[in-house]
Design a protein that fits this description.
482 residues; mainly alpha; 2 domains; 20 helices
């Protein structure tokens, strides 16, 4: 039987290929589309983000992770979840359809009526494929998910670009998303081979909901307290400012949150299988956490220092006001994937209640930050979100130490070293590269080459064990990935 190490290595390879392949495709199309559309177009989409996201979360009900976490899910479980998701999605769509007028009135934008009604169709499309994603994830078959996501990103990006070039403005963004949903739906139904049966098991529902409701509550509060910035900014600031914030958030979503998802969707099923083997569980956790920290500190640093020349060259100068928002968002890259990793470890160890309490505490900090900081501007609001993520990371780490016996020093000492190294590399960029008065092209080139090289050099000198582990892992992928 294939070992967990081999399956995890293969899953991680395809998951990261999925993420970075989709990154490149989405990033490329995002650049061209953003050059064509205006900040106001992105602002209009930003106004309905929270409503669509809430609908998506209500539709799933936490059952996707429950299917993965349950060791012996059967056909009744999968069909029960499918029909629950489908019926809930239709109900949510009807609610949004008739609420569209109120949403438009709140923002004073009549066009939002039709935008909301069309964009919400994506909730139904995702409902019809969510179980298929869970099936492939549970099997750790990320190869199929990779090709489906790449196809979806390519076709959706092409759809958005063609519509943007033909003057459809905000509708280019709406149909870009729907095209991706439709391609993913078709790809998943064809590749997974699974079809729902006309059964609904009350016992299966109760069993899965006992785990899933915690994920649902966490997801709902996450949407409310992280997406609330969109309607708040849309109501209090000019629509162009919301456009800058929306596009900055999109890049944060692509580079930071999707990286976190690519890791956790592999880690969660992998660690769920060894939840009863405490010593093996803890050892694998330490190695995985430290390697993830190394990758995220390096990538987030590069994103922060290179964001200004990148935006100037790729998106044109009309988008430069979004740079401060992006840079603060990218600071969250140091902590958010690690926090999500820890939360998924808690769920894998059947400590979902602990993860939920910590997450609710994080949302409370976000709420306080919104109340206190909104009058200081958008940068302050984003900084409050970053601070809440850091606090949540520290509390998840404390919980893992207390509940699973993981030694704090085994992860915190390497992370402190990485923080110091990151600070030195940031200073190198600001005080050595920036004062040279170089062109944007040359400045970008130096920041994506010299800064990472300096980071890796310092990591080697500081004896960061995860660097050696990462090199060994990459070297072994050729033998483990078929």
């Amino acid at each position: 039987m294939e070992s967990l190490k081999t399956r995890t290595a293969r899953g991680m390879f395809w998951s990261f290929l999925d993420s970075f392949g989709v990154y490149l495709v989405r990033f490329g199309f995002s650049i061209v589309i953003a050059r064509t559309l205006s900040p106001e177009d992105y602002g209009l989409m930003g106004m309905i983000v929270i409503f669509i996201a809430l609908g998506q979360m209500l539709m799933q009900g936490g059952f996707s992770m429950a299917l993965i976490q349950k060791k012996e899910s059967d056909e009744t479980d999968f069909s029960t979840v499918f029909w629950f998701n489908a019926v809930t999605a239709v109900i949510v769509y009807i609610i949004l359809f008739f609420s569209a007028g109120a949403i438009a009135s709140f923002f004073g934008k009549p066009v939002l009526v039709s935008i909301t009604r069309v964009a919400a169709i994506g909730i139904i499309l995702n409902a019809l494929s969510s179980v298929h994603v869970s099936l492939l994830t549970k099997k750790m078959d990320f190869r199929k998910l990779t090709w489906i996501n790449l196809a979806g990103a390519g076709i959706s990006g092409t759809t958005g670009l063609v519509m943007a070039l033909r003057g459809f403005e905000v509708w280019a963004l709406v149909f870009q998303t729907l095209a991706g949903n439709l391609i993913s739906l078709a790809g998943l139904w064809i590749s997974s081979g699974w079809r729902p049966r006309f059964v609904f098991g009350p016992g299966s529902f109760r069993s899965l909901f006992s785990f899933g409701y915690k994920v649902l509550l966490q997801g709902l509060t996450d949407v409310i307290f992280t997406r609330i910035y969109f309607p708040l900014i849309g109501k209090l600031f000019p629509v162009a400012q919301l456009g800058f914030y929306t596009n900055a958030s999109r890049f944060h979503e692509i580079f930071i949150r999707q990286t976190a998802n690519s890791v956790t969707r592999v880690i969660f099923p992998a660690f769920s299988t060894i939840q009863d083997e405490r010593e093996k569980f803890s050892s694998n956790y330490v190695k995985s956490f430290n390697m993830l920290a190394l990758l995220m500190f390096l990538s987030s640093l590069v994103l922060i220092v290179s964001s200004r020349p990148l935006v100037s060259l790729a998106l044109t100068e009309k988008w430069l006001p979004a740079v401060p928002f992006m840079q603060i968002f990218f600071v969250e890259g140091f902590f958010f994937p690690l926090m999500m990793f820890n939360q998924n470890i808690l769920y894998s160890a059947n400590l979902g209640s602990t993860a939920l309490r910590i997450d609710l505490g994080r949302k409370a900090v976000i709420l306080v930050g919104i109340i206190v900081l909104y009058s200081y501007g958008i940068e302050a609001l984003i900084a409050g979100q970053v601070a809440s993520t850091l606090l949540a990371l520290l509390f998840t780490q404390w919980s893992l130490t207390r509940r699973l016996g993981i030694k704090t020093g085994s992860v915190m000492v390497p992370m402190v070293k990485l923080l110091i190294i990151t600070g030195l590399c940031f200073a190198f960029s600001v005080y050595v590269i920036d004062p040279q008065g170089l062109s944007d092209w040359l400045q970008l080139l130096l920041k994506v080459t010299l800064v990472p090289a300096f980071f890796l050099l310092l990591s080697g000198l500081a004896g960061i064990d995860s660097l050696r582990e990462l090199v060994k892992l990459i070297g072994g992928l050729r033998n483990r990935v078929s």
